[in-house]
């Protein structure tokens, strides 16, 4: 069984996390060490699921002009090949008319502790509505 731990954050302007005392999962995004996250991933889980979610947070903050910044953070363990097949890519939708292009950051930690950071050149940006003679949209999707 191949296990891979992925920590990812997606947001529309800046990446940030709130500071909490406690486990590695309570630390701000990308501050826990690979060893800490691997230890958290080893906690027993009920069932034999392809993917086990350890943390899933969405934080929305507003500036003085009412503009929103959405930060999404997910920490998960891929436990089977089916998990690799189903969770091998992530995507987020956005609209250039009123949103900044999302900033995507991710890292993969192997069971041996090797870290691979997301190469930004591998992120693709494509129209969300690819072909339609009657639908006009500026919606786009980033795929990682």
Relative helix content:
10-25%
Rounded mean pLDDT score = 82
Largest sheet: 5 strands, antiparallel
Give me the count of strands. 8
**Strand arrangement in the largest pleated sheet:** 2-3-1-5-6
Question: Ranges with pLDDT <50 over ≥5 residues?
Answer: 1-21
Distance between the termini: 24 Å
Radius of gyration: 17 Å
User: What is the string of helix and strand elements?
Assistant: EHEEHEEEEE
Count of alpha/pi helices:
2
Cα shape: globular
Strand residue content: 35-45%
What would you call the quaternary organization? Answer: single chain
Structural class by helix and strand composition? mainly beta
Task: Explain what the structure shows.
The chain is mainly beta and 144 residues long. 10% of the residues lie in helices and 37% in strands. It has two helices and eight strands; from the N terminus they run E-H-E-E-H-E-E-E-E-E. It has helices at residues 34-41, 81-87; strands spanning 4-11, 51-62, 68-78, 91-94, 103-109, 115-117, 124-127, 140-143. A five-stranded antiparallel sheet has the order 2-3-1-5-6, with helices on both faces. A three-stranded antiparallel sheet has the order 4-8-7, with no helix packed on it. The longest helix has 8 residues, at 34-41.
